[in-house]
Amino acid sequence: MAKPLLPLGLATVLLCLLLRTVSGVKLNELFVVHAGATKSGCDTYFNQKNGDGTLDDWLEEINYSISEAIDKIDQKYNREKSIRMAIQTFFGIPNRGRARGDIKVKVDNLSANLKLVLDFFSFEKIKADGPSKGQPIYPLNGDRFLFCGSDFLEEKKKDTVARDWKDNEIKDDKGKAVTIADVTAYANALKADPNNKAWWSGDHTPVKGYYFSTTGGKYCDPATKNLGLTAAIQELEAGPSGQPTLRKPVEIVVLCEESFTNTKQPDSYRIGDAKIKAGTNLADVVPKSATLLHEAFHVLFGVDDGNNPANPIGFLQGDEIYDLAACIQLALDDPEKARRNPENYVFFLTQMYYLFGKPSGTDPSSIDTNWDFAPIKKGNTFVAYGYYTERSSQTISHAISSPVFMTSMPK
């Protein structure tokens, strides 16, 4: 049965109530935020005591943007062509006027994915009756950390004695020290890539385990221009004898300094909104908070391990796509894969918020002018992303100077 539409005024009131509720969530309810001003501490961007700062602004902005998108999909998909066109552009779900049959299933699944992300960022509680009622859907059990940098990771040689989650040396049943290379799972991780190294997380943090990669602690070096990553730190449990056992991985999100300081992305939706004019590239007005949003998709949906191509589970990582034009092309070529690519969601949510965001004083999430973006094609080839006028169903295009040239107009 179709969901009954709420009167517009009531829907707006309910949305405002929702936004007031989620704005009270603090980042340290979602992550153990690593403290300090060095060794990947986040004190520069988050005040642990007051729960405010840049990262708190990001959290509020993310909640506002996801809430706005969900509200508009659920309430206005059938009435607003701009919503249908955005969904078609980024997720390959055809615009057929109304959501029916298979189209409705896909749109509902898209909305459900966004609601899962909102549940996480708004620290939603379980509503169903039972022993878990009132408990967070995504509880923080000390196993989800946020770092502002990667230099907390320190390289360890493979013949270094392995340490457990309590920072004790691992020894076999004869009292002989066990090296990192002696641990079967670790040896396999090192062999997975000839350039892999073992990186220890425990000298400066409460997370005492190993991460295997080619870059590790150098991931956020300024020259790399990397923004962030999601990874698992593997801790060991020392047993009474023989091989140590692996504990449940600790999930970490790393936000590099570049995600806070790069000059290409605006600090907020409000600043991005003021930059938009004819010829603006949507990719250039994605706010800095999108890095944290992107990583949340990896946290919540996991990673496709590639073991079941016919029925993939988890989002893309490693083969994921970041470029705007490539994301749109992915939706054309492989819609199912586009719906598992985090950056497709980032671009979609960005467009939706510039299209429907509301003014709210000087808040970072305040939008004073609404803008619409849509694809421009020459024949069957995507060449740009510009303003689409629903009234005449014609594309307004200015001179195209690059593959991702944007034309944008006030809505």
TrEMBL record:
**InterPro entries from the xrefs?**
MetalloPept_cat_dom_sf (IPR024079)
Matching SUPFAM superfamilies: Metalloproteases ('zincins'), catalytic domain (SSF55486)
Q: Where is the signal peptide?
A: 1-24
Q: Which UniProt keywords apply?
A: Signal
Q: Listed GO molecular functions?
A: metallopeptidase activity
Indicate what this protein is called per its UniProt record. Lysine-specific metallo-endopeptidase domain-containing protein
